[in-house]
Design goal:
The structure is a single chain. By secondary structure, this protein is an alpha/beta fold. 29% of the residues lie in helices and 11% in strands. Strands 1-5-4-2-3 form a 5-stranded parallel sheet. A 4-stranded parallel sheet has the order 7-6-8-9, with helices on one face. It starts with 15 loop residues before the first strand and ends in a 19-residue tail after the last helix.
């Protein structure tokens, strides 16, 4: 593990790129585009030209333990994608960049410095009828070297320290109000569940999608600062984001950490771990217990 390298807060355009910027820089040898989509076959049916496909379930996640991919394996994948230590990495995907943001979190955790998201995700690129390709590219091996950080991820004991008042970090639950209140266990159609509904005591609820405009692009920096400040999150205290399995929370982590420059970490165990853990307190305003009041 290494401590993070100090750096000045980055401008919005240095962490979020427009479709126009990306179209103009597709041929740059210093830019590598990564698609991280959820729906199978999306990349194969057509992707941004030159984009490399990273499958989140196998390329970012350990397939045996519930953990992110091992640093050695991640380094292999990054080098195979032609990524160097000074490469500008632009990620995009479906579902408003849920897992593209997850990928950005993994890249940053493993020491990549210049990691960006495509504003408006894959949807905006397609809506503008921009070019798509079905050819999977190949690149000369890169020299990316993992430098693992320890400040962007927290675990259950860290969260419990916050709940007990032994740590002054702020917990931000980015799920829907119905999930937060315990009215529902998870959005309809999702299979990863906890045996209890509700939220972590003391957490504030700012649903992830509130950071986006109707077209899926990010709101302005000023609007984002106000959105979270209205919930008591103003950057004066470190922040921990969580959701159900970590993917939506990585989107909010990106907003808080990369766009706003706050000290933020992701609890990727999220509610499926916390809500299934024995002996930990929860808040359940709806009083729902396996669907029975």
């Amino acid at each position: 593990m290494v401590a993070p390298s100090p750096r000045e807060p980055r401008k919005f355009e240095d962490v979020v790129v427009s479709t126009e910027w990306l179209a103009q820089n597709l041929d740059s040898p210093k830019v590598r585009v990564i698609e991280v989509s959820v729906a199978p076959g999306v990349y194969e049916r057509g992707h941004i030209p030159g984009a490399v496909n990273f499958v989140w379930t196998t390329d970012f996640v350990d397939t045996v333990s519930r953990n992110i991919i091992a640093p050695e394996r991640f380094q292999e994948l990054a080098r195979a994608a032609g990524i160097d230590n000074d490469t500008t990495i632009v990620l995009y995907g479906d579902n408003n960049n849920w897992f593209a943001a997850w990928g950005a979190w993994v890249f940053r955790q493993y020491g990549a410095e210049d990691v960006r998201l495509l504003d408006g995700s894959r949807s905006k690129w397609e809506a503008e009828n921009r070019e798509l390709s079905t050819r999977a590219p190949t690149y000369p091996p890169g020299d990316f070297t993992v430098r693992q950080r320890s400040d962007l991820r927290v675990f259950l004991p860290d969260v419990l320290n916050v709940v007990r008042g032994e740590d002054n970090r702020v917990l931000v639950d980015i799920r829907s109000p119905d999930e937060f209140s315990g009215k529902i266990f998870a959005p309809e159609g999702f299979q990863e569940l906890a045996v209890r509904a509700g939220h972590i005591p003391g957490a504030v609820n700012v649903p992830w999608k509130q950071a986006l405009r109707d077209d899926g692009t990010f709101k302005s920096v000023e609007e984002l600062r106000k959105l979270y400040a209205d919930a008591g999150v103003d950057g004066s205290k470190p922040v921990i984001t969580y959701c159900r399995i970590g993917e939506r929370a990585s989107h909010t982590w990106f907003v808080l950490s990369e766009i706003l420059g706050y000290q933020a970490a992701l609890y990727d165990g999220s509610w499926t771990e916390y809500g299934n853990s024995v002996g930990v307190p929860i808040a359940n305003p709806a009083g729902t217990i396996w669907g029975v009041k």
